[in-house]
Amino acid sequence: MSAPLDASKVEITKTTSPSKPLPKEQLVFGKTFSDHMVEVEWTKESGWGVPKINPYHPLSLDPATVVFHYSFELFEGMKAYKDSNGKIRTFRPDKNMERMNRSAKRSSLPTFDGEELIKLINKLLELDADFVPEGFGYSLYLRPTLIGTTASLGVAAPDKALLFVIASPVGPYYSAGFKPVSLEATDYAVRAWPKGVGEFKLGANYVSCIEPQSRAAERGHSQNLWLFGEEGYITEVGAMNVFFVFKQANGRLELVTPPLNGMILPGVTRDSILNLVKQKFADTVDVSERDLTIYEVKERAAKGELVEAFGSGTAAIVTPISNIEFRGEQISVPVVGGDAGDLTKKVWQLIQNIQYGEEEFENWSRIA
């Protein structure tokens, strides 16, 4: 019988040369790592092996390993936070595990019990607690990753895999702080397509975005606003989900984000924003998951009905948008006080309050 993932069997080997965490002011996103990592091997014949927490180290893989040739790879992005009492918390880790298993199934890689991986991550956090920086905007970024490790050039489902978790202490994603960004509405390249793999967190979904992002940067923009089809359907912004806020004729606001149609990554932050706005701001805001196009955004901006826009994701939480360039024309998004609109700021602050344990909401923030 194939063995399940079992955190109770974990073997821990502590580093003999512990490092000193950098001062939080010196942290650069994803450049430094904590002292330990989680590793679990899987084989088709035996299932999940003994989980191990070892000192952080390079991996040794055969040059023919399928991850290098056919992208048998997926990952998650999540964070651990230190609250005002010094306790370490994670934010909705069950949602990350659900998404990781969906990605694994689509990638012909093994699935696992998400709660068992959460237990292993909690043991890693206990061991590397000193690497979780204090203060709003600071956290320990966690990167659970699953790769196929079969050494073969044959195109087939791997019969070996490696699940591992590394951790990187990080500060605010944008060094300039909570500042609005300019986007290039991009229709000469696409991030995802119908019935493809855009809804899964695969490395292959990111590599194709870098060259268009570089082109957008050359024209003075921070990210791409990804469009699809001749109709100009809006999908995502950079590697984030995207939201628009429109003023309606009845005086209420409409918060709009594209629906999960197979091309959109089901972001944990996206889901959190939708739930929070429905419950906390229902008296003034209607929430819509619907198709929208760049032409609707342009038209409503011209009428003064576009009042806010922002991207959302684990790394930055919320990123306000101030401008969108589409085929040489500028679509301006109002910003208040030079940073963001009112709803954008409220959502950003509310999510942070929950993540750092300042406010409780539906057990989203779990003490590790």
With helices defined by DSSP (H or I, 4 residues minimum), what is the helix count? 7
Strand and helix order:
EEEEHEEEHHEEEHEEEEHEHEEEHE
Radius of gyration: 21 Å
Name the average pLDDT: 96
Instruction: Extract low-pLDDT stretches.
Output: none
Number of strands: 19
Q: How much strand content do the residues show?
A: 25-35%
Task: Give helix % range.
Answer: 10-25%
Taken from the alpha-carbon principal axes, the silhouette is: globular
Category from helices, strands and their pairing: alpha+beta
Distance between the termini: 31 Å
Oligomer: single chain
Biggest sheet character: 10 strands, mixed
In short:
With 368 residues, the protein is of the alpha+beta class. It has helices spanning 66-70, 93-106, 114-127, 204-218, 268-280, 294-302, 342-355, and strands at 11-12, 36-43, 47-48, 52-55, 73-75, 78-82, 88-91, 139-148, 160-170, 181-186, 223-228, 233-237, 241-247, 253-257, 285-289, 306-313, 317-326, 329-332, 365-367.
Structure report:
There is one protein chain. The model has no long low-confidence stretch (mean pLDDT 96). Helix content is 23%, strand content 29%. With 368 residues, the protein is an alpha+beta fold. The two termini are 31 Å apart. Strands 1, 2, 3, 4, 5, 6, 7, 8, 9 and 19 form a ten-stranded mixed sheet that branches. The protein is built from seven helices and 19 strands.
